[in-house]
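User: Hi! I'm working on a homework problem where we have to compare a predicted structure to a textbook description. Could you give me the structure for the chain below?
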Amino acid sequence: MDHADEHTEHGGTGALGDAEYAEFMELAAEEGFDLEEVADDLAEAGHGPLPVLAVVGRPNVGKSTLVNRIIGRREAVVEDRPGVTRDRVTYEANWNGRRFKIVDTGGWEQDVLGIDASVAAQAEFAIEAADAVVFVVDSTVGATDTDEAVVRLLRRAGKPVVLAANKVDGPSGEADAAALWNLGLGEPFPVSSLHGRGTGDLLDEIIAVLPEAPEMTFGDVIGGPRRIALIGRPNVGKSSLLNKVANEDRVVVNEIAGTTRDPVDELITLGGITWKFIDTAGIRRRVHLTEGADYYASLRTAAALEKAEVAVILVDASETLAEQDTRIITMAVEAGRAVVIAYNKWDLLDEERRYYLEREIEKDLVQVQWAPRVNVSARTGRHMEKLVPAIETALAGWETRIPTGRLNAFLGELVAAHPHPIRGGKQPRILFGTQAGTKPPRFVLFASGFLEAGYRRFIERRLREEFGFAGTPIQVSVRVREKRGRKK
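Assistant: Happy to help. Predicted structure tokens:
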């Protein structure tokens, strides 16, 4: 099989045309890279969003312990008491070369809000937003009424479900696991998330039901309006802003934080262009287990961000920048969306507050200095006309594509002028690279050795100085050269 066929077989790279792909593979061959591995690297970097697996179950059945086992490190908080996980948390996992996102969710239980309010609010959208679900049941306890309620939700959702019978620490627990056939979800996989027993078989089944990562077609629907998510912490003015750009009251506005529960999609003409605005419920810093509606709202907000192309993040300029603000910005960046930061309630600021706000921005938002900023007032309409150019700038950066030849000329000059520091008597250098995808821009660099995090940040900074990329995160991955013919 020649490498042009290989390119087709791997589903393309999302951004490289056939001629440019062939040119790049010639570069790789000259430098002594294993071409099959290079093709895999480009396919991996150029694919669409990773498939999503939700881990669900009632409290204290071992969901977070299982997540830690699957991702191979202790990241999800684990305590021997129910309700520790409250917010939905996403990690990236890999099993036998297949990458996917895994979502650790809060436990579901019958509480003061009642089974319908609590379980539905915390579960339905977590399941809806996933491609497949792992339902964790404590095999030492058996199926409870709450488990039965969750099964009904899973059946209605129609998503593939893998049943994990947890806390089977030895052969004596196999019979308890087998009893869970009665749930009607198919074969229960006996596992011990604490000790790792049976997790390999469970992961094999998970990979079997998860879809492959799609090609990069996101946002390419011809003629469709661009999608904008308005996100921010509660009561920052998202609904007021939507009403102002629409020139009518389309969304309920109230001084009580958290009035908006569900995203409201609105087609709005602004600056002569039709946009799809998604007004989302505010993200709270902590969402308590029993506050089902607010938990549901945070899930809906995360899902709206997944559907959007641009995140317009509203920050209350009249208040000190909060931890929630930086968390929300990080959420948008990690989702790979174009970003515009809008400072609302600008009309309420005096000169002293504006001075200190600039200092806060320099200190707390250093990681997103590339994001366009607009100062607006949703109440008075101040500077609303600046919103569309900022959104267009961010979208243009998000879709920017650098030809391979131009990128390698830039990299060659960069390495010559600013070589990587010598470590352990060796000096790693960048051999060549390519932009493997857009939306957001994703680069793959092939190097002779490990590149330190500080040098990677330096590369990103220089990429921005040279090519722009305003309003978009940049993803840079590095592949270290291996000898030709290395076997996996």
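For your comparison, note the following. The chain has three domains: 3-48+400-480, 52-209, 226-398. The chain has a mean pLDDT of 77. Good luck with the assignment!
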